[in-house]
Write a structure and sequence with these properties.
single chain, about 240 residues, alpha/beta, six-stranded mixed beta sheet, about 40% helix, about 20% strand, globular
Length: about 240
């Protein structure tokens, strides 16, 4: 945006940087640069790959992350999720799309792979007015960042009892890992339909585990998970 247009927009609707609160910018150049340094395009570096155990089916779900949760990236993600900074979906979307496209396993014939967002709770969607993960995927699809063999499909839903039990983020790590099933998936339209699960942050892996098991029970083959950022274990040395 040109200086004149930005000044006019700020006069009409005053704004500040979503990360550092600097006036007159939705995302100031310095914070945008830092976020770009903290998000990676494929090939993703070491330390950005993880495995979530699926003990009930004796398998592991490979998960790749565009970045490590912390500093400007963490503040931007919190602003996106909790402070109505919806425009950040467009900032994050290309990184998520690149990670998904590079990790997608080619399928025979015309079998499409479904990209499935881990859903937000009804309470969170009601508060924000949007689902952060679904918004990032929709931005990517609208900009033509996904090939035709990848189809975004909202087939995963919260179980009613999970809605009443409260948000996952408010629970302890042990409660998350030991919790009951949170999601239910629509029945697969073709046996073994490949699915890529997408979430914003990987912490304990419990959310992706619940989502993967729900898809597995519905007849899908979950090939991998992609997240925008993963958290380091508590004993990991802090980043400089």
């Amino acid at each position: 945006m040109s200086f004149g247009l930005r000044e006019l927009a700020n006069f009409l609707v005053p704004t500040s940087c979503a990360v550092c609160s600097r006036a007159d910018f939705r995302l100031c150049p310095e914070c945008r640069t830092e976020i770009q340094h903290q998000l990676f395009l494929p090939p993703l570096p070491d330390g950005h790959h993880h495995y979530v155990e699926l003990p009930l089916i004796a398998q592991q779900l490979p998960v790749s992350s565009c970045g490590i949760y912390g500093r400007e990236l963490a503040r931007a993600m919190l602003a996106f999720k909790n402070k109505q900074r919806y425009f950040l979906a467009a900032v994050f979307a290309p990184y998520l799309a690149a990670a998904i496209n590079s990790s997608c396993i080619p399928q025979p014939g015309t079998v499409a792979t479904y990209i499935v967002a881990v859903p937000s709770s009804l309470k969170a969607v009601g508060k924000r007015g949007y689902s952060p993960v679904a918004s990032m995927l929709e931005h990517g699809m609208a900009r033509g960042l996904y090939p035709s063999e990848l189809v975004i499909r909202p087939l995963l839903h919260y179980r009613a009892r999970s809605v009443l039990a409260g948000a996952q983020k408010l629970k302890s790590g042990s409660a998350r890992r030991g919790g009951q099933e949170h999601f239910i998936a629509e029945r697969a339209d073709a046996p073994g339909r490949p699915v890529i699960l997408v979430d914003d942050v990987l912490t304990t892996g419990a959310t992706l585990r619940h989502a993967a098991m729900a898809c597995h029970k519905a007849g899908y083959s979950v090939t991998l998970g992609i997240v925008l950022a993963l958290t380091k274990p508590p004993n990991h040395e802090p980043e400089q």
